[in-house]
Amino acid sequence: MSQNYLKKKRMNMVQRVIVCVFLLVFLTQCNNPKPVELKDMPSRYASTFQMTTPDRVIIDDYTKLSDTIPARTHEMKDSVEVKKMMALLFQLPDSGEIMIKMGDVPLKRVNLVFSDHIEMIEFYNGRIKTPATSFYAQPNPMEQAVFDLVSRDSL
Questions:
Q1: Measured distance CA(121)–CA(118) in Å, rounded
Q2: Which of 46, 85, 86, 153 is placed for a possible disulfide with 119 were both Cys, Cβ 3.0 to 4.6 Å?
C-alpha cells in the first residue's frame, strides 16, 4: 500500500470522528429544552375554587399589602398536603357575603402552578379572597384549614 492511500484513509477517519462529535453536540443541545421560568408563565386570579391539583404550589408571604417583593417564598412539596389543600378549597363557596376595605395588612399569595399557567389565591390578614373578590362574613373552618396548611414552616 502506498503512503498516500494510508494518509487519505486516516484523514477520512478523522473527518468522520469530527462530524460525529459535531452531530453529538448538536443533538444534545437540541434535545434539552430550557425549563419555563415562573415569571414567564401567564398568571391570573383563580376564577373558581373547583380546580384540579396543580403541578406545584409556591407561596409568597408579604409583610404588608403594599410590598412589591415577598418577605418569604417557599414551596409546598408534600403531595399529600397539596391534595388536602385542594380538597378543602373545592368545598369553599366561590363568593362571600361581604366586601372588606383592606389597610396595609399581611398578604399571603398562593400560586397554583399548572403546566401552562398559574392560578393565584390570596389571603389578606388570614382571610381568603374568593374568586368573586369578596370575603366570607362568618369564619369558615375550611378557610382556616387552608390558611394553616399554607402557613406551615416546613412544607
A1: 10
A2: 46
Angle between helices 79-91 and 141-150 (to 10 degrees): 150
Measured distance CA(87)–CA(146) in Å, rounded = 9
As a dihedral over the C-alpha atoms of residue 125, residue 68, residue 121, residue 114, rounded to 10 degrees, the angle is -150
Cell numbers 494518509: residue: 7
pLDDT band at 11, cuts 50/70/90?
Answer: low
**SS3 of residue 119 by DSSP:** strand
What Rg do the C-alpha atoms of the chain give, in angstroms?
Answer: 27
Whether the CB-CB separation of 127 and 105 falls below 8 Å is answered with: no
Sequence-distant (6+) residues with CB within 8 A of 46 are 112, 119, 120, 121, 131
- Report the distance separating Cα 129 and Cα 146, nearest Å: 12
- 93-108 tens-digit pLDDT: 999 999 988 888 999 9
The answer to whether the CB of 116 falls within 8 A of the CB of 43 is: no
